[in-house]
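Re-run with default settings, no changes from the original entry. Doing this only to confirm the output is reproducible before filing.
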Amino acid sequence: MLIVNKLLPQGQGLAPVLLKRASQVELDWDVRQKSRFDATDSQGRTLGVFLPRGTLVRGGDVLVAEDGSMVRVVAAPQPVLVITPCAEHGTPFDLVRAAYHLGNRHVQIELQPDHLKIEPDHVLADMLRAMHLTVRDAAVAFEPEGGAYAAGGHAAHGHHGHGHGHGHGHGDDHAHGDPTHNHVPAANPPHGAPGHVHGPGCSHGHGHAHDHGHAAAPVTRGKPIGIAVKPAEAAPHVHGPGCGHGHDHGHGHDH
């Protein structure tokens, strides 16, 4: 027995010449919806298939054996009911209604733009005909939807991961929770100035180190990135050309 424990959805990554050389195995849906089964390929080899639980095998997939040999899966024709809108007075929307009612009954459905397929069921066939849909018997491949979260189904083969890479910020360059940029409201802003408010009218970026009532920044890797000056240790006032107040308030200036 040839042990198979790997599946390549639709033979992705394989050169066409390799797919042509691969043996084939025909499987109906009853077998392909199982993750563990036995089968015989076109070369007469017995396959023991052991795939991750929940894996759905689709026509066109490639099974890879432990010895590296590959087997291409063919969806075997099987009895189905093909459902189409009435040719005289039906509309494509009738298929939507049919899919809704079948889905409510947990029926496996193959969805196509112009028809639906289900496994034979005379009760469901009568219900669909009563809804003015056309139902006919056929023997074709059956590939029902695997569900949005089915492992190995259509959704799993595509690996459509929706990664939200944008940051939910408010115009700030810093990340939420960044320990180097903690906003702490100032209870008594220096010199009686109003506390800085971040809002829609804030026009400056927050990537630089501005002082508007923030708490003292911590030391990172031994290098301080911000130093808070205590009010008691404020730097002495220096009179110079830019000083805008008068000098008649008791300063001890030697002239």
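The domain at 2-75 is CATH 2.60.260.20 (HSP40/DNAj peptide-binding domain). The radius of gyration is 36 Å.
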